[in-house]
Amino acid sequence: MRIDIITVVPELLESPLSHSIVGRAVKKGLVEIHIHNLRKYGKGPRLQVDDYSYGGDAGMVIMLEPVFNMIQELKAERDYDEIIYMSPDGEVLNQGIANELSLKENIILLCGHYKGIDHRIREHLITREISCGDYVLSGGELPAAILADSIIRLIPGALSDETSALSDSFQDGLLSPPVYTRPAEFNGWTVPEVLLSGNPKLIREWQDEQAIERTKRLRPHLLKE
């Protein structure tokens, strides 16, 4: 898989995508991550990529031309399955979307900044818009890192134990059950006896019950869906 990320602040992405599971996946050659500075196509001595919006609203808007030129450069080298704009009003990221995108070969992530991007980019160049929640950040870099992480960890070989991802929250529409590790008792706090029983059937039943109870209590809308 290859992920190309277009941004005006590449420094925000370098650390999150260089360490832990994502960093190891890159080193293993399971995924390529390329971060592109949009200012490559900026104008003038300041490499300007933003301008005032028509209509007089406050805030600067990323211009159409630099984004168009950057995407055309990338598309000239390979075909892309998706060109995704990280947008507050896009479809809200969930595990199903991450699962779907993990099967793609090449995707572009466009990070918005300032007040947003010229809407013609969204109309003519973007194939999908994804949000990481109903709130606004300073730019799309952190959401892009979140999306990339959620995708890459699903690529076979990214996790040391590939079955681990199958038991993550939301994979089966439920939250994960509680998990415990050694010691079995600390400060009077104990691990549920069933987990120490060595009986896989009883443990599985307990985990299923806990997953349903936690989902009902914390994310009831998942059960309705």
What does this structure look like?
The chain is an alpha/beta fold. It has two domains: 2-152, SPOUT methyltransferase, trefoil knot domain (Alpha/beta knot), CATH 3.40.1280.10; 169-224, tRNA(m1g37)methyltransferase, domain 2 (Trp Operon Repressor, Chain A, Orthogonal Bundle), CATH 1.10.1270.20. Helices cover 32% and strands 19% of the residues. The protein contains eight helices and nine strands. The chain has helices spanning 11-14, 20-27, 64-75, 95-101, 119-124, 141-152, 200-218, 220-224; strands at 2-7, 32-37, 50-52, 60-62, 82-92, 106-111, 128-131, 185-186, 189-190. The strands form three sheets. A five-stranded parallel β-sheet has the order 2-1-6-5-7. The chain has a two-stranded antiparallel ribbon with strand order 3-4. A two-stranded antiparallel sheet has the order 8-9. The two termini are 31 Å apart. The mean pLDDT is 94.
